[in-house]
Design brief:
- With 241 residues, the chain is of the alpha/beta class.
- The chain has one domain: Purple Acid Phosphatase, chain A, domain 2.
- Helix 3 packs parallel to helix 6.
Length: 241
């Protein structure tokens, strides 16, 4: 199974990546994208045909205030290619997408636990209901249940959009993210303290890292569109839905 970093509406590049896995040239058999697809952001179509990119509109763009603002939505692929949601995804639109894996859960056959959602450190530059959503993070009471389920499940692999505090210093370059510990991050940290999985894969911070912290191997994926493409992907051979 391949894991793919933040897409940010680069759907053409996302689909090309699925069709040509790094280092192989073959199509990915299955994948999980770790959030920030860019679902629900205002945008306009660039290119033609399935997989054409959507570019978000800037606030000064005359199309931004039009009667109909195009909302980006990820292409519908097979059930072998799924995604989590990040802070730059409309939760309601994600919930209705057939490839959305869910807000959180444990997949026993894969020994894999997943958690969606994240915090927008740049929220002051965003507009609620346009490119910012009140429920971008899971509610506090839900996160308590996530931590409890995780502690009972004791997974071998974890996939989340954000990362626990224990590894944050190794990957964060954005000072706004350093200064704020979101409730998602704190829940992920509580999870890691309760049980240290073998592997934890995440995105959000737009940097590639492969390091050990607190007994767990952490792999942070870069943003799609940054080179080399291998830094925004990670493969676990033999793992499949």
């Amino acid at each position: 199974m391949w894991f793919i970093g933040d897409v940010h509406t680069r759907f053409r590049a996302y689909m090309e990546l699925i069709e040509h896995a790094p280092g192989t040239g073959d199509a990915m058999d299955c994948s999980l994208q770790v959030g920030d697809m860019g679902i629900g952001l205002p945008g306009r179509r660039v290119g033609t045909g399935l997989g054409g990119d959507y570019k978000p509109l800037c606030n000064e763009d005359p199309l931004f205030a039009g009667d109909e603002v195009l909302r980006t939505n990820a292409p519908v692929l097979s059930a072998n290619h799924r995604f989590l949601r990040g802070n730059h995804d409309d939760p309601a639109m994600c919930a209705g997408h057939p490839c959305y894996l869910g807000d959180y859960g444990f997949l026993p056959s894969m020994e894999l636990f997943f958690v969606s959602g994240g915090y927008s450190a740049d929220y002051v530059n965003r507009y609620l209901g346009v490119d910012l959503w009140e429920d971008e993070e899971l509610p506090a009471d839900v996160l308590l249940g996530v931590v409890a389920l995780y502690a009972d499940s004791k997974p071998r692999i974890v996939v989340s959009h954000e990362c626990p505090t224990v590894v944050k210093g190794a990957v964060v370059g954005n000072i706004g993210k350093i200064e704020k510990a979101s409730r998602t991050e704190l829940a992920l940290e509580a999870m890691h303290r309760a049980h240290q999985p073998e592997l934890w894969i995440f995105g959000h911070h737009h940097a590639h890292v492969d390091t050990e912290a607190g007994g767990t191997r952490f792999v942070g994926l870069d943003e799609l569109g940054h080179e080399p493409v291998g830094e925004c992907t990670f493969d676990i051979p033999g793992l499949a839905w």
